Amino acid sequence: MAVTSKTAPVAVTATAIPAEKPPNKYRQALPQYAAVAPFFVLFAIFGAFPVLFSIWISFHSWDGIGPMTWVGLEQYRYLLSDATFWQTIGNTLIIWVLSTVPMLLLALVIANALHNATRLRTFYRIAYFIPNVTSVVAITLVFGSIFSNNFGLLNAFLQSIGVGQVEWLTSPWGIKIAIATIVTWRWVGYNAIIYLAGLQAISADVYEAAKVDGASPRQTFWRITVPMMRPVILFTAVTSTIGGLQIFTESRVLFGDTNNIGGPGDAGLTIVSYLYQSAFIKNQFGYGAAIGWALFILIVLFSIINWRLIGGTDDERLTRRAARRVERRIAAQNAKREAADVR
To answer: How is the chain split into domains, by residue range?
Structure first.
């Protein structure tokens, strides 16, 4: 007789597996933060801190070494009554107008010529852009010899055609014209390249439609090209305003005298030159910081004026958007026609 043995069932206990914790998103992003951290550290040290510190010292009297003395708004009150400061504003605005207006007009004409050129287009682009990458000190020294009162090339040319000698570097308007010429020669090619990029973004179908309607080249330029280039013109006007109101190197190199960096009668003394003179020559760092913040307010005001004058009204902006939509629609239709012709 077979005997079968039965074993008692063994209870199986399920061991609970601990749930995995979700990854820490901050820890995962730590390598990315570490990669960009050097930029923010350098910006905080060399960008944000100097700006905030300049605000602080504009309310103090400080020679750069000794203790600071709190003066509140006295620096700004003196600034409003400082005749030299108002003279620098006048000098800067005159130089800015004499340089910016012809510079942007010449740049637009040059860009239009380059856009329509069929030969040596790349050569001309490089040639017009070279002055912008040339050292401004070297450019100013060359133009200083050209505008020299006694031995300048410009005076030699004027005397050869019977015009009397002009005191370019001693008369108030001669100084301003010389500085404005340097600025114009340096930046006209840069703005021309920007305008050329804007011209190349305009669809050729628009010009073809203008030709069909019988528009002359002059009408096409002023009624089609310029209105459609308005955003690019606004950009160059704002950047030229920012740069024009911060002119310093040209007048500083043109008149190398440390005690008179603005030339005879301070005719070439700009706002930044006056800031440099107050802070780093006279050691009035608090007053120099106040001049810097007054310059910042002027740049903001003139940038807003340019935006309102060149940017156009809301209706004009809507018209330009509608024109761009028409361009895209025409381009899409042409692409469909080309695809149908290929089939």
So the answer is: 85-327
Q: Whose structure tokens read 């026609």?
A: 337
**CA–CA separation, 219 and 210 (whole Å):** 9
Q: pTM for the whole thing?
A: 0.79
Q: Is 70 helix (H, G, I), strand (E, B) or coil?
A: strand
Q: Which two tokens stand for residue 88?
A: 């620098």
Q: Angle CA(303)–CA(307)–CA(310) in degrees, nearest 5?
A: 125
Q: Homologous superfamily of 85-327 in CATH?
A: MetI-like (1.10.3720.10)
What would the pLDDT profile of 4-62 be if each residue is shown by its tens digit? Answer: 555 555 555 555 555 566 667 777 778 888 888 899 999 999 999 999 999 999 999 99
Query: Are residues 228 and 119 in contact, defined by beta-carbon separation less than 8 angstroms?
Result: no
Please name which of 186, 193, 88, 189 lies closest in space to residue 137, comparing C-alpha atoms.
186
Q: Is 269 helix (H, G, I), strand (E, B) or coil?
A: coil
Instruction: Compute φ and ψ for 215, nearest 5 degrees.
Output: -75, 135
| Cα–Cα distance for residue pair 70/52, rounded to 1 Å | 16
Per-residue DSSP letter, 266: G
For 58, list phi and psi in degrees, rounded to 5.
-70, -15
List, as one string, the DSSP characters of 22-69.
Answer: PPPHHHHTHHHHHHHHHHHHHHIIIIIHHHHHHHHHTTEE--SSS--E
